[in-house]
Amino acid sequence: MTIALIVLLTLWYLSFLATRLDRLHHRVETSWANLDGLLQRRAAIALEIAHSEFVDPASSLLLTSAAYQAREASVEDRSAAEMALSGSLALLIVDGQSHANIAEQALLGELAALTAKIEIAIAIHTDAVSSTQAVRAKFAIRFFRLAGTAPLPVTYEFESDAL
């Protein structure tokens, strides 16, 4: 009777851990989808700014290239592409803020609001990844292979970069 109770409690605990890990992986995927959507929107706004009249041709070419690279980057190249877009936008905003008309200032304002949302989304994603990594480091998770074939979630380099 005692052995059956121990086995039952162990199975319940393993089931609890597996369910928790599954929820954490779902949280990582959801936070990444949200962050990715915001980053895609930022690239779209960058393209709108690049095609506006107050941007000189050289800056427009640089910003357009960086925006397309950020939109179409593979997982391995995503950090470099997002950091390049951040750098291009920073140069443009410092240089072009005062020369913008009302419509372009609205785009720059939308970009600033979106950047604040991206910073929050990065914090949420980083927290989700660190929580999942902490749970996956537990002995029971590793020993019983409760993570299955799910890849270990990682953060990207651009997430620590100031957007």
Radius of gyration: 22 Å
Residues in helix, %: over 70%
Number of domains: 1
The quaternary structure here is single chain
Question: How would a crystallographer describe the biggest sheet?
Answer: none
Question: By helix and strand content, what is the structural category?
Answer: mainly alpha
**What's the N-to-C terminus distance?**
60 Å
Number of helices: 5
How would you sum up this structure, described in words?
- By secondary structure, this protein is mainly alpha-helical.
- The protein has one domain.
- The protein is 76% helix and 0% strand.
- The longest helix is centred in the first third of the chain and has 49 residues, at 2-50.
- It is elongated and about 80 Å long.
- InterPro entries: LemA-like_dom_sf.
What's a concise summary of this model?
This protein has 163 residues and is mainly α. The protein has helices spanning 2-50, 57-72, 78-96, 102-136, 139-143.
Summary keywords:
single chain; 163 residues; mainly alpha; 5 helices; 76% helix
Walk me through the topology.
Elements: H1 2-50, H2 57-72, H3 78-96, H4 102-136, H5 139-143
Helix pairs in contact: 1-2, 1-4, 2-3
InterPro entries: LemA-like_dom_sf
